[in-house]
Fold this protein.
Amino acid sequence: MKLASARLVIGHLYPDLLNIYGDRGNVLALRRRAAWRGVGDVEVRAYTVGDVLDFGDVDLICMGGGEDRKQVLAAEDLRTRRDPLEAAVAGGLPVVAVCGSYQLLGAYYQLSDGSRLEGAGIFDAYTVAGQQRLVGNVVVDSPLFGSLVGFENHAGQTFLGPGCDPLGHVVVGGGNNGRDGGEGAVRGFCVGTYMHGSLLPKNPALSDWLLLAALRRRYGEGLDWPALDDAAEERAHAAAVRRAHETARGRA
Ligand code: GLN
């Protein structure tokens, strides 16, 4: 199948509430990489609280991070979408959720005052606000994607149950909770992570995995999938990894 006749709809959830540290860059990277590959029609649709959203109309979901009080608003809305989102993820819908939205895809996020923000329960995970924020550059070794790099800033500490795997193991940084060495979560094609950055522009393997999953879900196997020249992305990745190691050494 020729990509020129393919269509890709990226759903950007809560861009007005959850969008810090350049998380919007994830949407831009996906859109660009799809266009560079020759996907004929790439559309980004923004959805926020109260909007009609049929998960059958979108091919990929992107969600960013945000402050606790914005998460309260997003969580309320997301809970109303729990069943259709669960069905879509179980059916292979690719999702990338960063930090605040990663937390909201778990069972709950317990805020520092002890109150609990109920999540959508897509990940077998829960989050509890810790005393200290985990802040800094992160390098992760991922079995699916190799080296990943980003920037974290979160009070929440996330703990995974057996229903999902970590995205990878922390090489530099705090990751899910600063204790068990895990970073992020993967269930099917749904990925949660604490890595802002933006994450996807300098981690093209993850971008392509999401894009391929989205297109295969709609068009099946046998897509033309030309390699891209990722020299610039690889340089950005290497520079961010170098910086992460330098800042880690500086702190030691
Ligand atoms: N408010 C959440 C926390 O502090 C998420 C922050 C974020 O998205 N960077 O854990």
